[in-house]
Amino acid sequence: LTVLDISHTGLGLEVVSTRHAKLEKIRLRGMDTGIDSQKLASALAKLPKLKALLIDMNVLKIQSLAESNDWPKELEVLTMNHCDIAKTPGSIPLLLTLLGKVQWVNRLSLGNNNLGVGSEEELNNLGTELARLSKLERLRLHKNALGPKGLAAITETWVAAIEAQEKKPDSALRLLDLSSNALGQQKSDLLSLLSPLLESHITQQLHSLNLKDNSLNSEDLETFIAAIQAGRILKQLRILRLGSRIDESGVASGKQLTDDELAVVQDRIPWVLVE
What we know:
Blueprint: E1 3-5, E2 25-27, H1 37-44, E3 52-54, H2 63-67, E4 77-79, H3 91-99, E5 107-109, H4 120-131, E6 138-140, H5 147-163, E7 175-177, H6 190-198, E8 208-210, H7 218-229, E9 239-242, H8 259-266, E10 271-274
Parallel strand pairs: 1-2, 2-3, 3-4, 4-5, 5-6, 6-7, 7-8, 8-9, 9-10
């Protein structure tokens, strides 16, 4: 047995034992009884070959996971979407401790956890931890209410930590999901907000960027796309995801991309998905 899926069931983690030592993938999404993080930490100690852990849609108190030193050394995929991580006071520092123990993951998903409520210092520290994930290929931070200030706090230290390295790691990041983070709030300049990250070593090989549902206005978008067309940023980009309504401040001000606008964008980017 290499894959165990007990999602949306009432089964407990007691079903995981030393006889499952060859398990490579576990799905524990939306468990009827939730997840006891202490039991999960104990289960991980029995799974040295585990490569993927999917624990989305669970109210998760992560202290035991953060304190565990038994994270499988072969873990490549960790998804913790919709786990209400930031709901419990003090949980973001625990998340950072946890990330420090899985520095070899190449796919990390932390969507829909309201991380934007974290302090500037906590989000700065999140950026520092991301810089340590040298093999990271796919990062999803969607639906975290980061806003411009929250994203800036993360990218500031993330970029600084990478640029400070004398020998920079090979750029691994291929996919970045920043959708539904209210990045267009406070009339922020999208290009100025994203440029430190998108002009850095981190995104040199980025193929897919998701900016859906960020209340972006048409002027912001035009400037951003012009920078892509000029080759200033995202030279390897293949897929750009945008919300169908660029300016979402109200129905009357909503604007669809016209066929002509799409044609201009697609001249530089093979796939622009307006969903």
